[in-house]
From TrEMBL:
Entry's localization field: Cytoplasm
PROSITE patterns cross-referenced by the UniProt entry: RNA_POL_N_8KD
A molecular function GO annotation: DNA-directed RNA polymerase activity
Summary of the function given for this chain in its UniProt record: DNA-dependent RNA polymerase (RNAP) catalyzes the transcription of DNA into RNA using the four ribonucleoside triphosphates as substrates.
Similarity comment text for this entry: Belongs to the archaeal Rpo10/eukaryotic RPB10 RNA polymerase subunit family.
Full protein name: DNA-directed RNA polymerase subunit Rpo10
Main location: cytoplasm
A cellular-component GO term for this protein: cytoplasm
Organism taxonomic ancestry: Archaea, Candidatus Iainarchaeota, Candidatus Iainarchaeia, Candidatus Iainarchaeales, Candidatus Iainarchaeaceae
Gene: rpo10
EC number annotated for this UniProt entry: 2.7.7.6
């Protein structure tokens, strides 16, 4: 699905950082270093970003 706008646990806005995180990780940068540089410090925010699975392209194949 779409990336959560806020962290489920603490409520910090994290969606604005997901695009840059994904682009940098796809360029083979270390995810831990990228999160540190983006200011994602709390483990709950890291978990939300790290464990997100982008399924919107899969869902769009089906018509309702």
């Amino acid at each position: 699905m779409m990336v959560p706008v806020r962290c489920f646990t603490c409520g910090k806005v994290i969606a604005e950082k997901y695009e840059e995180y994904l682009a940098r990780v796809n360029k083979k940068e270390d995810p831990e270093k990228v999160m540190n540089e983006l200011g994602i410090e709390k483990y709950c925010c890291r978990r939300t970003i790290f464990s997100h699975v982008d399924l919107i392209d899969e869902i769009m194949k089906y018509n309702v």
